[in-house]
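Re: your question from the hallway

Yes, I did run it. Sequences:
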Amino acid sequence: MTKYENVKKKIVNSITSGHYQSGDKLPTESVLMKQYGVSRYTIRRAMGELENEHYIYKIQGGGMYVDDWQANRQKTVNNKMIGIVTTHLADYIFPSIINGIDRAISNKGYSVLLSNTHNDHAQERQSLQRMLESNIAGLILEPTQSALPNPNVDLYRQIEQSKVPALFINAHYDDLQIPYIQLNDRHIEYQLVKRLFERGHKSILGVFQVDDLQGVERMRGFMDAYAQHPEFSYLSDVIMYQSVDDMAKIFKKTAHRLKDDSHPTAIVCYNDQLAIQIMDVVRSVGLKIPEDVSIVGFDDYLLSKYVTPSLTTAVHPKNRMGMDAGRMILSMIDGQKAAPIVYDAEIIERDSVATIKKNK
Amino acid sequence: MTKYENVKKKIVNSITSGHYQSGDKLPTESVLMKQYGVSRYTIRRAMGELENEHYIYKIQGGGMYVDDWQANRQKTVNNKMIGIVTTHLADYIFPSIINGIDRAISNKGYSVLLSNTHNDHAQERQSLQRMLESNIAGLILEPTQSALPNPNVDLYRQIEQSKVPALFINAHYDDLQIPYIQLNDRHIEYQLVKRLFERGHKSILGVFQVDDLQGVERMRGFMDAYAQHPEFSYLSDVIMYQSVDDMAKIFKKTAHRLKDDSHPTAIVCYNDQLAIQIMDVVRSVGLKIPEDVSIVGFDDYLLSKYVTPSLTTAVHPKNRMGMDAGRMILSMIDGQKAAPIVYDAEIIERDSVATIKKNK
DNA sequence: ATGGATTTGTACGTATGTATC
DNA sequence: TGATACATACGTACAAATCCA
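Structure:
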């Protein structure tokens, strides 16, 4: 420990302990020289560094004063930013989530730094690197193609070990010690499909995006429901796709299934966005919704209430998830531990599901 | 200019000019002393500051070397961020605009730093201050309550004079030398109302939000159309409101107008968001759309196609505006001048407008 | 308002410590 | 191991800004 470091430490202590209050005039250099028994060089070096670190400020001829260090401490360059990395930025359910985050953090003086991955690992890598370079106070992440092996685990590990608090939304990686907020996708989808069984459906087609964990979990829920009806299991049918696939082919495949005489009486879709498109596919092969085919979505997208027929779906608590994420990240910035949150959300029955008559 | 500043400047020059390349070993302190004819103190002071600024790095006993300054220069903290300050963040047309901006800038390595004002001047002040403190490369601004005197002009002036490029979207202040991208609200609204006249409407109610310039301009366009039909001018009627007003009162006022026997045959609304609410008001007094009352909106909101009856409106080129704004701010960062862009957008006729029969 | 005292800023010379080559 | 090169430290001198009688 050098002399100037020693002096510096003692003076920082006097400031942080409150012995010198913000705005107080500090002793002059010559007084400090005597006080610490060192030369002017040593005092000047110590005080110079304290000035750089915004603990004090100096006025030539005037003296040295304690700076507003409590505010300036974190303000090297304003870092009251929460980074958000999502697969999409301004489509579908994401505006509501981001809005929720903003509502939770903006009144505490934080802003949001947004970056989206377009569900692509290369872009996710760029986004994460950019976030790590930016002087952010916290990080809210939605994993990209979360069901596939992630080539960016090295960055996630880096985040995990860094002092920047982070949390996942919508999905999470089990092997990372990062808290998460997400839906109980599996159980919610199970409930959706169970209701279809209760309304007499036996042959149900599932269409799921399987490169993210939500999709995989929802498909599991679909399977779970069938597992309770082993007598119909041979009627279950699933179409799986990935976000990079050409959707036209998926719709073609779906249409082909519907043209069969013994076509499914219901289609369970990965999410509402897909469901709305599938509705067009159903109509394109001359079938009526819900008379011939019932449709179920997931997420309760804004439009789902307005399409005809209005879409039966499960609520994604978008705004609430955003607010919870914002609050959680703030508490983590304050040094608290965060426990995961899992929503068991509500189902909204609308007009896209019909009851199958027994005598049919 | 002090000696150490002088020495510092000359050495920075040798580095930026390429005389010393990144990684090169610099002369020793004693050589520099002779070279510049100054004491060791002066050399050490100069080189110490250059080290802090990441131009060079030192190794005790080893020597001084040129740092990777080209990368580190801009990376004091990563500043590849575009600040966006809008009245709303994730509602209505804003996701599309932000999406457009993101599409334009993300492939150049930029991220978006978002902050919204909730259409409140105090929050606008906070947002602008936060942006000025954050190390951003450019700023995209939507004025808050742009038709009212703005208490934050001081900050806008500061932005105008700073080296950070800025531009306005949706509206602009004439007395600031800041480029803008917006709609020709007045002329577009004029065309909307003109079409109502062409379809036989004579008594048209306008409902406009008048604390932002878009609303004021749209109202002017409404007036312009009536000015061409002086014979009906006594039938024109306008309800004005501000964003802080209690909308329930505005709807009550609107309902009151509709209850009159000689009620207007059409309502022209500030935007689609309002129009969709007004549609409920119309129905609540027992009138049918469009048979009894036609409705016209503005902005072509996502939902406008799906409400029943679907809403006649004018296109707000949201995504295009975002992309243009992104491209413009990037070209300004490159040092180019930017010329304002004004869109003369298209009108979409849907089912919320009826033709008035002549014999009526 | 003015000049002298005080206080910080710049600058030089010297001596010694410590890491590198 | 010795020479080299940066780091720490002290003393001194004068300049420039501020303060106060």
